[in-house]
Amino acid sequence: MLSRLALGLVLGLIVGACGAFGLIVALGWSTVSASAAYVLAAATGAVMGLVAGKPLWERGAGLEATLKAIFGAAAATVAVFAIRRWGPGDIDLAPFHAGRGTLGELPAAFLPLIAVALGCFYEVDDRLKLEEEGAFGDRRPKVRVAVDAAPEVAREAVVEGPRVPARGEEDIDVGAPDVMERKTRRGVTS
Fold first, then answer.
1. How far apart are alpha carbons 190 and 179 in whole angstroms?
2. Three-state DSSP class for 156?
């Protein structure tokens, strides 16, 4: 869980810092107006929805990443509203060439903050989903085995993972390293 929190923290810092750095260096915007703050926060939230948790490029993640991007944009917009309305007063980031103003006016302050919060949320949510589905630590392949029902009839069963032989069974290697055949010894008691 802590590793996923750390991953969300790092992803959030990277996305938020890159966005703020681009605004400050490329555009010269060390402070932004309210409307620009909402648009920038929505864009940051959308990017975090696409890259954090189950990222867009992972197989079968298109819809989930799109929904996370929409939610991230909405949540980031609400967060900027709350930061601008009830956030702390003056912050001086002038020594870092990032401006001076309230928290909601400084993209170098609010973009990484929002990105980290969303990144941690998405990573923990994805971890909980994986644990719920049983996909963590239990990635055993399904193995085909032949089971003797009677000497003249054989049936196939699918079992998951390693199995301890029952009384009167033995493991016979059939050549493939991951496939074992279990046969019953008739009349043997051990």
1. 24
2. strand
Token pair listed for 151: 């000497």
**pTM for the model:** 0.64
The closest of 126, 23, 134 to 65, measured between CA atoms, is: 126
DSSP string, the chain: -HHHHHHHHHHHHHHHHHHHHIIIIII--SS--HHHHHHHHHHHHHHHHHHSSS-TTSTT-HHHHHHHHHHHHHHHHHHHHHHHHHS-SEEE-GGGTS-EEEGGG-HHHHHHHHHHHHHHHHHHHHHHHHHHHT-SS--PPEEEEEEEEETTEEEEEEEES--PPPTTEEEEE-SSTT-EEEEEPTT---
Q: So what's the pLDDT on residue 152?
A: 47
Q: Which residues are within 8 A (CB) of 15 and not within 5 positions of it... i.e. 6 or more apart?
A: 44, 47, 48, 51, 115, 119
Residue-wise pLDDT tens digits, 72-122: 999 999 999 999 888 787 888 878 777 788 878 888 888 999 999 999 998
pLDDT tens digits for range 175-190: 555 544 444 455 555 4
